[in-house]
Input
Amino acid sequence: MRFSLRPAAIMACAGFLAASAPNSGVCEEPLKSTPSERKSVHITIYNGNFGLVKEVRDLAMPKGVHDLYFEGVAAFIDPTSVHIRSLDAPGDLAVLEQNFEYDLISPAKLMEKYVGLPVELVQEEEGNRKVVQARLIGTEGGYVYEIDGKVAVNPPGRVVLPSLPKGLISKPSLVWKLENGRERHTVEATYLTNGINWKADYVAVLSGDDRNMDLSGWVTIDNQSGAIYEDAALKLVAGDVNRVQPERVARVMEMSDALGAGKQAFEEEAFFEYHLYTLGRKTTIKNNQTKQIALLDAGGVAVEKSYVYTSYGRYYVARMGGPDKETKVGVYLKLDNSKRNNLGMPLPRGLVRVYKRDADGSLQFVGEDQIDHTPEDETIRVKMGDAFDIVGERVQTDYKVLGTNTYETSFKTTLRNHKDENVVVSVIEQLTGDWEIVAKSHSYVKESSHRVRFDVPVERKSSADLTFTVRVRY
Output
Protein backbone atom coordinates (compact mmCIF):
# COMPACT_ATOMS: atom_id res chain seq x y z
CA MET A 1 0.00 0.00 0.00
CA ARG A 2 1.21 3.56 -0.78
CA PHE A 3 0.65 6.75 1.18
CA SER A 4 0.96 10.14 -0.50
CA LEU A 5 -0.42 13.68 -0.45
CA ARG A 6 -2.59 15.23 -3.15
CA PRO A 7 -3.65 18.86 -3.65
CA ALA A 8 -6.90 19.73 -1.92
CA ALA A 9 -8.27 21.30 -5.11
CA ILE A 10 -8.18 17.91 -6.81
CA MET A 11 -9.17 15.70 -3.92
CA ALA A 12 -11.53 18.01 -2.02
CA CYS A 13 -11.04 15.19 0.50
CA ALA A 14 -13.43 13.34 -1.84
CA GLY A 15 -15.66 12.36 1.01
CA PHE A 16 -12.94 10.17 2.45
CA LEU A 17 -12.87 9.53 6.15
CA ALA A 18 -9.09 9.96 6.35
CA ALA A 19 -8.13 12.67 8.80
CA SER A 20 -5.97 15.63 7.82
CA ALA A 21 -4.88 18.92 9.31
CA PRO A 22 -7.88 21.24 8.74
CA ASN A 23 -5.97 24.12 7.21
CA SER A 24 -2.98 22.40 5.67
CA GLY A 25 -4.17 22.75 2.06
CA VAL A 26 -3.66 19.05 1.48
CA CYS A 27 -5.68 15.93 2.24
CA GLU A 28 -4.03 12.68 3.16
CA GLU A 29 -4.92 9.89 0.73
CA PRO A 30 -6.98 7.28 2.59
CA LEU A 31 -5.56 3.88 3.36
CA LYS A 32 -6.74 1.41 0.74
CA SER A 33 -6.68 -2.34 0.24
CA THR A 34 -7.32 -3.38 -3.35
CA PRO A 35 -7.96 -6.78 -4.99
CA SER A 36 -4.35 -6.76 -6.20
CA GLU A 37 -3.33 -7.51 -2.59
CA ARG A 38 -5.39 -10.68 -2.37
CA LYS A 39 -3.55 -13.81 -1.36
CA SER A 40 -6.63 -15.97 -1.88
CA VAL A 41 -10.38 -15.78 -2.37
CA HIS A 42 -12.96 -18.46 -1.57
CA ILE A 43 -16.61 -18.28 -2.54
CA THR A 44 -19.45 -20.59 -1.54
CA ILE A 45 -22.56 -20.12 -3.67
CA TYR A 46 -26.02 -21.15 -2.51
CA ASN A 47 -28.92 -21.82 -4.84
CA GLY A 48 -30.91 -19.06 -3.18
CA ASN A 49 -29.21 -16.16 -5.04
CA PHE A 50 -26.54 -15.43 -2.45
CA GLY A 51 -22.97 -16.38 -1.67
CA LEU A 52 -20.40 -16.37 1.12
CA VAL A 53 -17.11 -14.67 0.18
CA LYS A 54 -13.85 -15.09 2.10
CA GLU A 55 -10.78 -13.06 1.13
CA VAL A 56 -7.28 -13.16 2.55
CA ARG A 57 -5.14 -10.07 1.92
CA ASP A 58 -1.80 -8.63 3.02
CA LEU A 59 -2.31 -5.32 4.78
CA ALA A 60 0.23 -2.63 5.65
CA MET A 61 -0.83 0.33 7.78
CA PRO A 62 0.70 2.53 10.47
CA LYS A 63 0.05 1.91 14.12
CA GLY A 64 -2.80 3.82 15.68
CA VAL A 65 -6.39 4.48 14.64
CA HIS A 66 -6.95 4.67 10.89
CA ASP A 67 -9.72 4.34 8.32
CA LEU A 68 -9.22 1.59 5.76
CA TYR A 69 -11.03 1.39 2.42
CA PHE A 70 -11.39 -2.28 1.47
CA GLU A 71 -12.08 -2.13 -2.27
CA GLY A 72 -13.32 -4.78 -4.71
CA VAL A 73 -16.22 -6.09 -2.65
CA ALA A 74 -19.60 -7.05 -4.11
CA ALA A 75 -22.11 -4.30 -4.82
CA PHE A 76 -24.90 -6.32 -3.17
CA ILE A 77 -23.01 -7.11 0.00
CA ASP A 78 -24.96 -7.57 3.23
CA PRO A 79 -23.10 -5.09 5.47
CA THR A 80 -24.39 -6.75 8.63
CA SER A 81 -22.66 -10.02 7.69
CA VAL A 82 -19.12 -8.60 7.37
CA HIS A 83 -16.30 -9.84 9.59
CA ILE A 84 -12.59 -8.99 9.46
CA ARG A 85 -9.80 -10.44 11.57
CA SER A 86 -6.03 -10.63 11.61
CA LEU A 87 -4.76 -14.15 11.02
CA ASP A 88 -1.28 -13.58 12.43
CA ALA A 89 -1.96 -11.09 15.27
CA PRO A 90 -5.65 -11.00 16.22
CA GLY A 91 -4.99 -9.01 19.39
CA ASP A 92 -3.32 -6.16 17.48
CA LEU A 93 -6.23 -5.29 15.18
CA ALA A 94 -9.60 -4.12 16.48
CA VAL A 95 -12.61 -2.81 14.51
CA LEU A 96 -14.07 0.37 16.00
CA GLU A 97 -16.52 1.26 13.22
CA GLN A 98 -17.68 -0.25 9.96
CA ASN A 99 -19.36 1.31 6.92
CA PHE A 100 -20.35 0.16 3.45
CA GLU A 101 -19.91 2.97 0.91
CA TYR A 102 -21.78 2.56 -2.38
CA ASP A 103 -22.59 6.12 -3.52
CA LEU A 104 -20.65 5.71 -6.76
CA ILE A 105 -19.43 8.39 -9.14
CA SER A 106 -21.69 8.95 -12.18
CA PRO A 107 -22.53 12.01 -14.33
CA ALA A 108 -25.98 12.25 -12.74
CA LYS A 109 -24.62 11.96 -9.20
CA LEU A 110 -21.94 14.56 -9.89
CA MET A 111 -24.50 17.06 -11.17
CA GLU A 112 -26.83 16.41 -8.23
CA LYS A 113 -24.00 17.22 -5.83
CA TYR A 114 -23.34 20.55 -7.58
CA VAL A 115 -26.88 21.97 -7.42
CA GLY A 116 -26.51 25.54 -6.08
CA LEU A 117 -22.75 25.65 -6.75
CA PRO A 118 -20.69 27.39 -9.46
CA VAL A 119 -19.55 25.44 -12.52
CA GLU A 120 -18.02 26.22 -15.90
CA LEU A 121 -19.58 25.72 -19.34
CA VAL A 122 -16.97 25.35 -22.05
CA GLN A 123 -18.46 26.31 -25.43
CA GLU A 124 -16.60 25.71 -28.68
CA GLU A 125 -17.79 27.09 -32.02
CA GLU A 126 -15.80 27.32 -35.25
CA GLY A 127 -12.56 26.80 -33.43
CA ASN A 128 -13.24 29.41 -30.78
CA ARG A 129 -13.33 28.32 -27.14
CA LYS A 130 -15.35 30.26 -24.61
CA VAL A 131 -15.64 29.57 -20.86
CA VAL A 132 -18.93 30.68 -19.30
CA GLN A 133 -19.27 31.00 -15.53
CA ALA A 134 -22.61 29.58 -14.36
CA ARG A 135 -24.42 28.29 -11.31
CA LEU A 136 -26.31 24.99 -11.52
CA ILE A 137 -29.80 25.46 -10.04
CA GLY A 138 -31.75 22.37 -11.21
CA THR A 139 -31.34 18.83 -12.63
CA GLU A 140 -34.91 17.48 -12.95
CA GLY A 141 -35.62 16.60 -16.62
CA GLY A 142 -32.57 18.55 -17.80
CA TYR A 143 -30.02 21.03 -16.51
CA VAL A 144 -30.95 24.57 -15.47
CA TYR A 145 -28.28 27.23 -14.92
CA GLU A 146 -28.15 30.81 -13.73
CA ILE A 147 -25.88 32.81 -16.08
CA ASP A 148 -25.38 36.57 -15.62
CA GLY A 149 -28.57 36.83 -13.58
CA LYS A 150 -30.68 34.98 -16.16
CA VAL A 151 -31.97 31.40 -16.30
CA ALA A 152 -30.72 29.08 -19.08
CA VAL A 153 -32.21 25.64 -19.73
CA ASN A 154 -29.84 23.06 -21.26
CA PRO A 155 -27.46 25.63 -22.75
CA PRO A 156 -24.79 24.37 -25.15
CA GLY A 157 -21.37 23.52 -23.84
CA ARG A 158 -19.35 21.00 -21.88
CA VAL A 159 -19.74 21.14 -18.09
CA VAL A 160 -16.51 21.38 -16.10
CA LEU A 161 -16.62 20.88 -12.34
CA PRO A 162 -13.88 22.40 -10.15
CA SER A 163 -13.41 19.32 -7.97
CA LEU A 164 -14.81 15.94 -7.04
CA PRO A 165 -17.75 16.49 -4.67
CA LYS A 166 -17.69 15.06 -1.20
CA GLY A 167 -19.31 11.67 -0.60
CA LEU A 168 -18.74 9.93 -3.94
CA ILE A 169 -16.41 7.01 -4.55
CA SER A 170 -15.36 5.14 -7.70
CA LYS A 171 -16.28 1.60 -6.54
CA PRO A 172 -18.18 -0.06 -3.69
CA SER A 173 -15.98 -0.27 -0.61
CA LEU A 174 -16.07 -1.47 2.94
CA VAL A 175 -14.68 1.19 5.27
CA TRP A 176 -13.33 0.16 8.65
CA LYS A 177 -12.07 2.38 11.42
CA LEU A 178 -9.32 0.16 12.83
CA GLU A 179 -7.18 0.35 15.94
CA ASN A 180 -3.89 -1.13 14.84
CA GLY A 181 -0.96 -2.34 16.95
CA ARG A 182 1.49 -3.48 14.26
CA GLU A 183 2.50 -2.38 10.77
CA ARG A 184 1.69 -5.52 8.79
CA HIS A 185 -1.16 -8.03 8.95
CA THR A 186 -2.54 -10.91 6.98
CA VAL A 187 -6.28 -10.28 7.29
CA GLU A 188 -9.31 -12.40 6.48
CA ALA A 189 -12.54 -10.68 5.48
CA THR A 190 -15.81 -12.61 5.09
CA TYR A 191 -19.25 -11.43 4.03
CA LEU A 192 -22.50 -12.55 2.44
CA THR A 193 -23.63 -11.06 -0.85
CA ASN A 194 -26.79 -11.27 -2.90
CA GLY A 195 -26.81 -11.32 -6.68
CA ILE A 196 -24.92 -14.57 -7.26
CA ASN A 197 -26.71 -17.84 -7.90
CA TRP A 198 -26.19 -21.32 -9.25
CA LYS A 199 -28.38 -24.05 -10.63
CA ALA A 200 -27.96 -27.47 -12.17
CA ASP A 201 -28.94 -28.31 -15.74
CA TYR A 202 -29.01 -31.83 -17.12
CA VAL A 203 -28.90 -33.14 -20.68
CA ALA A 204 -30.04 -36.70 -21.39
CA VAL A 205 -29.80 -38.60 -24.68
CA LEU A 206 -32.16 -41.58 -24.96
CA SER A 207 -31.19 -44.82 -26.64
CA GLY A 208 -33.15 -46.05 -29.65
CA ASP A 209 -35.25 -48.45 -27.57
CA ASP A 210 -35.91 -45.87 -24.80
CA ARG A 211 -34.39 -48.17 -22.19
CA ASN A 212 -31.11 -46.36 -21.50
CA MET A 213 -29.79 -42.83 -21.53
CA ASP A 214 -26.52 -40.94 -21.33
CA LEU A 215 -26.84 -38.20 -18.71
CA SER A 216 -24.59 -35.18 -18.30
CA GLY A 217 -24.97 -32.44 -15.73
CA TRP A 218 -23.76 -28.85 -15.74
CA VAL A 219 -23.50 -26.24 -13.02
CA THR A 220 -24.58 -22.82 -14.24
CA ILE A 221 -23.32 -19.86 -12.18
CA ASP A 222 -24.86 -16.42 -12.70
CA ASN A 223 -22.83 -13.62 -11.14
CA GLN A 224 -24.56 -10.25 -10.89
CA SER A 225 -23.10 -9.37 -7.49
CA GLY A 226 -20.98 -6.49 -8.79
CA ALA A 227 -17.60 -8.13 -8.05
CA ILE A 228 -15.03 -10.30 -9.84
CA TYR A 229 -13.77 -13.44 -8.08
CA GLU A 230 -10.43 -14.18 -9.72
CA ASP A 231 -8.74 -17.56 -9.24
CA ALA A 232 -11.31 -18.41 -6.61
CA ALA A 233 -11.75 -21.65 -4.72
CA LEU A 234 -15.36 -22.52 -5.48
CA LYS A 235 -17.92 -24.46 -3.45
CA LEU A 236 -21.63 -24.91 -4.09
CA VAL A 237 -24.29 -25.74 -1.51
CA ALA A 238 -27.39 -27.64 -2.65
CA GLY A 239 -30.39 -27.52 -0.35
CA ASP A 240 -33.06 -25.19 0.96
CA VAL A 241 -31.23 -22.86 3.35
CA ASN A 242 -33.58 -20.68 5.37
CA ARG A 243 -32.92 -16.93 5.12
CA VAL A 244 -34.85 -13.82 6.05
CA GLN A 245 -35.73 -12.16 2.76
CA PRO A 246 -33.46 -9.16 2.10
CA GLU A 247 -35.10 -5.80 1.62
CA ARG A 248 -32.87 -4.71 -1.22
CA VAL A 249 -33.78 -6.02 -4.67
CA ALA A 250 -30.97 -7.08 -7.00
CA ARG A 251 -30.57 -5.04 -10.18
CA VAL A 252 -30.96 -6.60 -13.61
CA MET A 253 -27.72 -6.60 -15.60
CA GLU A 254 -26.63 -7.84 -18.98
CA MET A 255 -25.01 -11.28 -18.97
CA SER A 256 -22.40 -12.93 -21.13
CA ASP A 257 -21.68 -16.63 -21.54
CA ALA A 258 -18.55 -18.55 -20.66
CA LEU A 259 -18.12 -22.31 -20.73
CA GLY A 260 -16.08 -24.19 -18.16
CA ALA A 261 -14.07 -27.27 -19.02
CA GLY A 262 -13.67 -30.71 -17.58
CA LYS A 263 -16.00 -33.50 -16.49
CA GLN A 264 -16.71 -34.76 -12.99
CA ALA A 265 -14.98 -31.61 -11.79
CA PHE A 266 -16.82 -31.45 -8.45
CA GLU A 267 -16.36 -33.56 -5.34
CA GLU A 268 -19.57 -34.05 -3.36
CA GLU A 269 -19.95 -34.42 0.41
CA ALA A 270 -22.76 -34.26 2.97
CA PHE A 271 -22.73 -30.97 4.88
CA PHE A 272 -25.14 -30.33 7.76
CA GLU A 273 -28.57 -31.03 6.19
CA TYR A 274 -27.36 -30.06 2.71
CA HIS A 275 -24.85 -31.27 0.14
CA LEU A 276 -21.61 -29.49 -0.69
CA TYR A 277 -19.93 -29.61 -4.11
CA THR A 278 -16.28 -28.54 -4.25
CA LEU A 279 -14.58 -27.70 -7.52
CA GLY A 280 -11.21 -29.44 -7.75
CA ARG A 281 -9.48 -26.44 -9.29
CA LYS A 282 -9.63 -22.67 -9.09
CA THR A 283 -11.78 -20.63 -11.43
CA THR A 284 -12.50 -16.99 -12.23
CA ILE A 285 -16.08 -15.76 -12.02
CA LYS A 286 -16.48 -12.40 -13.73
CA ASN A 287 -19.19 -9.89 -12.94
CA ASN A 288 -22.23 -10.03 -15.26
CA GLN A 289 -21.16 -13.48 -16.44
CA THR A 290 -22.92 -16.81 -16.77
CA LYS A 291 -20.39 -19.63 -16.36
CA GLN A 292 -20.98 -23.35 -16.86
CA ILE A 293 -18.87 -26.11 -15.29
CA ALA A 294 -19.32 -29.85 -15.78
CA LEU A 295 -20.96 -31.61 -12.83
CA LEU A 296 -21.34 -35.22 -13.95
CA ASP A 297 -21.18 -37.50 -16.98
CA ALA A 298 -22.94 -40.88 -16.73
CA GLY A 299 -23.49 -43.34 -19.55
CA GLY A 300 -25.76 -46.36 -19.83
CA VAL A 301 -28.29 -45.20 -17.23
CA ALA A 302 -31.27 -47.57 -17.27
CA VAL A 303 -34.66 -45.87 -17.62
CA GLU A 304 -38.23 -47.06 -17.69
CA LYS A 305 -40.85 -45.34 -19.84
CA SER A 306 -44.37 -45.23 -18.43
CA TYR A 307 -47.77 -43.93 -19.52
CA VAL A 308 -50.10 -42.29 -17.00
CA TYR A 309 -53.74 -41.28 -17.32
CA THR A 310 -54.96 -39.22 -14.36
CA SER A 311 -58.52 -38.46 -13.33
CA TYR A 312 -59.34 -35.84 -10.75
CA GLY A 313 -62.08 -37.50 -8.67
CA ARG A 314 -65.16 -35.84 -10.16
CA TYR A 315 -68.79 -37.03 -9.87
CA TYR A 316 -68.32 -39.27 -6.84
CA VAL A 317 -71.32 -37.82 -4.99
CA ALA A 318 -74.57 -35.92 -5.41
CA ARG A 319 -75.04 -36.19 -9.19
CA MET A 320 -74.52 -38.04 -12.41
CA GLY A 321 -71.78 -36.59 -14.59
CA GLY A 322 -70.75 -36.62 -18.21
CA PRO A 323 -67.46 -37.85 -19.70
CA ASP A 324 -64.17 -36.30 -18.63
CA LYS A 325 -62.85 -33.80 -21.15
CA GLU A 326 -59.24 -34.75 -20.44
CA THR A 327 -58.04 -37.41 -22.89
CA LYS A 328 -54.27 -36.91 -22.66
CA VAL A 329 -52.01 -39.71 -21.49
CA GLY A 330 -48.77 -38.46 -19.94
CA VAL A 331 -45.38 -39.95 -20.83
CA TYR A 332 -42.78 -40.28 -18.05
CA LEU A 333 -39.23 -41.57 -17.71
CA LYS A 334 -38.25 -43.19 -14.42
CA LEU A 335 -34.68 -43.87 -13.31
CA ASP A 336 -32.95 -44.89 -10.10
CA ASN A 337 -30.26 -42.58 -8.77
CA SER A 338 -28.05 -45.46 -7.63
CA LYS A 339 -24.48 -46.59 -8.15
CA ARG A 340 -25.65 -49.83 -9.75
CA ASN A 341 -27.39 -47.62 -12.32
CA ASN A 342 -24.17 -45.66 -13.02
CA LEU A 343 -25.34 -42.69 -10.93
CA GLY A 344 -25.50 -42.59 -7.12
CA MET A 345 -24.51 -38.94 -6.71
CA PRO A 346 -26.87 -36.60 -4.83
CA LEU A 347 -28.35 -34.53 -7.66
CA PRO A 348 -29.11 -30.84 -7.13
CA ARG A 349 -32.44 -29.40 -8.21
CA GLY A 350 -32.44 -28.56 -11.91
CA LEU A 351 -33.96 -28.83 -15.35
CA VAL A 352 -33.57 -32.10 -17.28
CA ARG A 353 -33.72 -31.78 -21.07
CA VAL A 354 -34.08 -35.03 -22.99
CA TYR A 355 -33.04 -35.70 -26.60
CA LYS A 356 -33.24 -38.71 -28.90
CA ARG A 357 -31.75 -39.47 -32.30
CA ASP A 358 -34.11 -39.83 -35.24
CA ALA A 359 -33.80 -42.23 -38.18
CA ASP A 360 -30.99 -40.25 -39.83
CA GLY A 361 -29.04 -39.85 -36.56
CA SER A 362 -29.96 -36.24 -35.77
CA LEU A 363 -30.70 -35.34 -32.17
CA GLN A 364 -34.26 -34.18 -31.56
CA PHE A 365 -35.67 -32.59 -28.41
CA VAL A 366 -38.34 -34.81 -26.81
CA GLY A 367 -39.16 -33.03 -23.54
CA GLU A 368 -37.97 -31.47 -20.30
CA ASP A 369 -38.95 -31.41 -16.67
CA GLN A 370 -37.74 -30.00 -13.36
CA ILE A 371 -36.35 -32.38 -10.75
CA ASP A 372 -35.98 -31.56 -7.07
CA HIS A 373 -32.90 -32.17 -4.90
CA THR A 374 -32.57 -35.96 -5.14
CA PRO A 375 -30.51 -38.01 -2.67
CA GLU A 376 -28.68 -41.18 -3.61
CA ASP A 377 -30.86 -44.30 -4.08
CA GLU A 378 -34.03 -42.28 -4.71
CA THR A 379 -36.18 -42.54 -7.86
CA ILE A 380 -36.45 -39.72 -10.38
CA ARG A 381 -39.55 -39.24 -12.54
CA VAL A 382 -39.31 -36.92 -15.52
CA LYS A 383 -42.42 -35.98 -17.49
CA MET A 384 -41.72 -35.83 -21.21
CA GLY A 385 -45.12 -34.66 -22.42
CA ASP A 386 -48.33 -36.32 -23.62
CA ALA A 387 -48.54 -39.42 -25.82
CA PHE A 388 -49.72 -38.80 -29.38
CA ASP A 389 -50.89 -42.37 -30.15
CA ILE A 390 -52.50 -43.29 -26.81
CA VAL A 391 -55.83 -41.76 -25.82
CA GLY A 392 -57.90 -42.11 -22.65
CA GLU A 393 -61.60 -41.46 -22.06
CA ARG A 394 -63.38 -41.74 -18.71
CA VAL A 395 -67.16 -41.78 -18.23
CA GLN A 396 -69.45 -42.27 -15.24
CA THR A 397 -71.67 -45.27 -15.98
CA ASP A 398 -73.84 -45.47 -12.86
CA TYR A 399 -74.78 -43.51 -9.77
CA LYS A 400 -76.78 -44.54 -6.68
CA VAL A 401 -77.75 -42.98 -3.37
CA LEU A 402 -77.57 -45.81 -0.83
CA GLY A 403 -78.52 -43.80 2.23
CA THR A 404 -77.69 -40.69 4.18
CA ASN A 405 -74.29 -39.47 3.00
CA THR A 406 -73.59 -42.79 1.25
CA TYR A 407 -73.18 -43.03 -2.53
CA GLU A 408 -72.11 -45.64 -5.05
CA THR A 409 -70.65 -44.65 -8.40
CA SER A 410 -69.34 -46.67 -11.35
CA PHE A 411 -66.82 -45.58 -13.97
CA LYS A 412 -65.40 -46.86 -17.22
CA THR A 413 -62.06 -45.68 -18.60
CA THR A 414 -61.34 -46.62 -22.21
CA LEU A 415 -57.72 -46.61 -23.36
CA ARG A 416 -56.99 -46.70 -27.10
CA ASN A 417 -53.50 -47.66 -28.27
CA HIS A 418 -52.64 -46.68 -31.87
CA LYS A 419 -48.98 -47.64 -31.52
CA ASP A 420 -47.29 -50.66 -33.10
CA GLU A 421 -46.33 -52.04 -29.68
CA ASN A 422 -48.07 -53.21 -26.54
CA VAL A 423 -48.17 -50.74 -23.66
CA VAL A 424 -49.25 -50.55 -20.02
CA VAL A 425 -51.14 -47.41 -18.97
CA SER A 426 -51.34 -46.48 -15.30
CA VAL A 427 -54.73 -45.00 -14.50
CA ILE A 428 -54.68 -42.78 -11.42
CA GLU A 429 -57.89 -42.20 -9.47
CA GLN A 430 -58.16 -39.57 -6.74
CA LEU A 431 -60.81 -40.72 -4.26
CA THR A 432 -62.56 -38.70 -1.57
CA GLY A 433 -64.36 -39.41 1.67
CA ASP A 434 -64.53 -42.83 3.31
CA TRP A 435 -64.24 -44.93 0.17
CA GLU A 436 -64.31 -48.61 -0.75
CA ILE A 437 -63.92 -50.15 -4.20
CA VAL A 438 -66.62 -52.81 -4.33
CA ALA A 439 -66.12 -54.00 -7.94
CA LYS A 440 -63.25 -53.76 -10.44
CA SER A 441 -62.02 -55.19 -13.74
CA HIS A 442 -58.32 -54.81 -12.88
CA SER A 443 -56.38 -54.98 -9.63
CA TYR A 444 -55.14 -51.75 -8.09
CA VAL A 445 -52.38 -50.40 -5.85
CA LYS A 446 -53.33 -48.08 -3.01
CA GLU A 447 -50.66 -45.37 -3.25
CA SER A 448 -52.10 -43.19 -0.47
CA SER A 449 -55.27 -42.75 1.56
CA HIS A 450 -57.04 -41.05 -1.37
CA ARG A 451 -55.12 -42.26 -4.43
CA VAL A 452 -55.15 -45.60 -6.24
CA ARG A 453 -53.40 -46.82 -9.39
CA PHE A 454 -54.69 -49.34 -11.92
CA ASP A 455 -52.09 -50.74 -14.35
CA VAL A 456 -53.97 -51.57 -17.55
CA PRO A 457 -52.27 -53.52 -20.39
CA VAL A 458 -53.32 -52.34 -23.86
CA GLU A 459 -52.27 -54.34 -26.90
CA ARG A 460 -50.99 -52.72 -30.10
CA LYS A 461 -53.65 -51.20 -32.39
CA SER A 462 -56.29 -52.10 -29.83
CA SER A 463 -58.19 -50.75 -26.81
CA ALA A 464 -58.91 -51.82 -23.25
CA ASP A 465 -61.58 -50.87 -20.72
CA LEU A 466 -61.05 -50.33 -17.02
CA THR A 467 -64.25 -50.47 -14.94
CA PHE A 468 -64.73 -50.07 -11.22
CA THR A 469 -67.41 -49.17 -8.69
CA VAL A 470 -66.62 -47.13 -5.58
CA ARG A 471 -68.80 -46.70 -2.48
CA VAL A 472 -68.27 -43.39 -0.69
CA ARG A 473 -69.43 -42.28 2.75
CA TYR A 474 -69.21 -38.74 4.14
Notes: The first strand starts at residue 5 and ends at 7. The chain is about 0% helix and 60% strand. The first helix runs from residue 8 to 11.
